[in-house]
C-alpha cells in the first residue's frame, strides 16, 4: 500500500480535477445545465473529430504517471509537462476560433479544425483551474514562497485572472484597432483614423468652426480638473484651517457624489437652467430676455463635472493638508514671516503632491466621464460619447471605437507621466518619528475670505441640485415644475401587489434593480477578497516578479471605464471566452475594475501591523492560510469593510464601463436611468436615482456601524493594555 503524504495528496487533487473536467464535464459552452452531460466532454469530442483536444485529455494522465513514478513534484519533467499542457490548451482555444482556423500548420495536422469550435464550457474552465492549481503546486515544490502551497496558488491564480481580465482585453483592443475591412491586420486603415481632422482640428480657437473631439476632451478635462482642484483646495482650507461654521455640511457634501448615480447632476441642472428651467424662466422674466440653450455644450458639462469631482479633490487635498507638520509654518512665522507669506512659501509647496494627485484624478475622471456629456453635450462631442456611439450606434464600428479608446488611454497615461515629471524627485516628507509639538496655524483672513468666495456658491448650487433630487421623486413633474404631490413615478418604477402567491412586482425598474443588487452584492465581496489577498501577497511574500505583479493589479484602475467596456466587448464577444450579455461579465468587470482600491486599502492596513504576530502564529505550526484567516483578517476589518463598501457603491452607480456590457436580460440601474433621460422622463430618472441613493446610504450606515464598533473595541483594548503596562511599571 502506497504511503501518500499531504504534499502528494494535494497534487493528486489537482490532477483529479483535471481528469474530471476532461472526461465528465462539457468542454464547450452549452445552452443550459440541463443540456450538458458527459457526452459533451473533451474526451468524447476528441474521439468524434476534435483531435486537438487529445493533449488536454492526456495531460492529467501523463502528469499522474510521472508523479506516481517520481513520488515527488520537484522534478523538472513534471514542471515541463504541466507548463506544456497548459500552453497547448491555451493555444488550441485561441488558434481554432468559431469560423475555423487560419493557421495552415494547424489545418494540415487537424483537418477538422476548419469547422471551428465554440466557446469554453464548464469543463474547459475547470480544466484550466486544475492546470493552474497543479502548476502552483509544482512551483511551491520548487521553492516559490518558501514552499507555501497556499501563497503559491494565490499568486498563480490571481496572475492568471489579471492576465485574462485586465491584460488580455487591453491587448485585444489594441489589436482590434488595426483590423482592416477585409479582416486582416495592418496600420494602413488605422492611421487615417488616428490622424483624422475630426479628432484634432483647432478651429474653435480661431473662431472659424469647431475643434476636434480629442481637443474638446482635453479642453473640458483641463478646465474641469483646474476648477475642481481650486474649489477642493478652498474647501480643504476652510475645513482644516479655519473656524468655518458649516464643517459638518462640507463633510456631508464630500460623500454625496460617491453615492450619486450618473445623469442625476445633469438632469437637475436641466431642471434648473434648461430652456424651461426654474432659474432660466425667472431670469428671463426679470430681465426680459429670451431663454437660450446655453447649458447644452461645454458650459453645462463643465458645471456638472465640477459639481461631481470637487468633493473628491477636497478629500484628497484634505488628507495632504492634515499630514503637514505644523512646526514648519510655526518656524517660518517665528523667523518673522507674515502668515500669508508662510502659507505661500511653506504650506502651498508642501501641498504640491496632494494638489497634483487631485488634479490628475479629476482630469482622468473628466476624460472617462460618460453620463454628463451624454445628457448635456449637445453638439459638443468628447471621446467617451464618440466611443459609445461607435459601438451602439446605427453603424457598429468596433475598430473605430478601439482607435478612439487607445487615444483616450494614451491621454490618461500621458497625464500620469506629466504628474510624475512635475513632482520630480523632490521629497515632501514632513512627518517623522520625532515629537510634533507645533500648533496648526489658522488660515490668514484674506485667504479665508477668498476660499469662502469659491465655497459658498458651490455649496448653494450643490444644495439646489440635491433638493431637486429629493423633491423630484414625490411631485408630479419636476421637469415642468408641476409640484403637485404625487407618487406616480415611484409607482411606475416600483409598483407591486401582494397576492396569495406572494409579492408580485410590476414596476418597470424592478428587473434592473434586482440585477444591480445581485451584481453589486456578488462583486463587492469578490473585489474585497481579491484586493486584500493581493495586498497580503505584495506586503508579506517575496517572489520573483512581485513589482510586475503589483503593476498589473493597478493597470485596471488607470484605464478609463469607457476603455474597459470597449476592451471587454472586443475580448469576450467571441470564443473561446464569450461572456458578453451575461451576468458573469458584469460581475467580473466590477471585480477587477475596483480591485486596486481594495488592494491599496489592504496595503495601508497591513503596513501598520508588525510581521512578528504572523511569524509567531507560523512558529506555533499554523499554515499561511490559517494565519491569514485567524490573525491577519481580524486586525484589518476596517480595510475589508472599506474595500467592500467602495466596490458595492461603485457597482451601483458606474455607467461608463457597463453601458457596453448590459443586455435586455441583464440590465443595470444606470442603463435604465439613461434610457429614461434619453426619453425626456426626467422625473422617473430622478425618482429611481433617489431610491438608489437611499439604498446605498442604508448600506453605508450598516457598514459604518460595524466599523465603528470595531474601532471602539480596539480603543478599549488599547486602553486596557496601557493600564496594565502602567501598573506593571509601577510595581
List the helices and strands and how they pair.
Layout lengths: L5 H18 L18 H6 L6 H17 L5 H20 L8 H6 L12 H20 L7 H28 L13 H5 L2 H4 L2 H4 L6 H29 L5 H13 L4 H10 L4 H10 L10 H25 L3 H9 L4 H12 L1 H17 L2 H6 L6 H10 L5 H26 L21 H28 L2 E3 L4 E4 L2 H7 L1 E4 L2 E4 L4 H31 L5 H13 L2 H12 L10 H24 L5 H8 L4 H12 L1 H17 L15 H10 L3 H49 L1
Antiparallel strand pairs: 1-2, 3-4
What does this molecule look like?
The chain is an all-alpha fold and 731 residues long. Helices cover 69% and strands 2% of the residues. The N and C termini lie far apart (63 Å). Mean pLDDT is 83; it is low at 427-435 and 708-731.
- Cα separation of the termini: 63 Å
Strand residue content: under 5%
Question: What structural category characterises the helix and strand content?
Answer: mainly alpha
Largest sheet, order of strands side by side? 1-2
What low-confidence regions span 5 or more consecutive residues with pLDDT below 50? 427-435, 708-731
Shape: globular
Question: What is the mean pLDDT?
Answer: 83
Number of helices: 32
DSSP strand count: 4
Cα-atom radius of gyration: 29 Å
| Biggest pleated sheet | 2 strands, antiparallel
* Helix content, binned percent: 55-70%
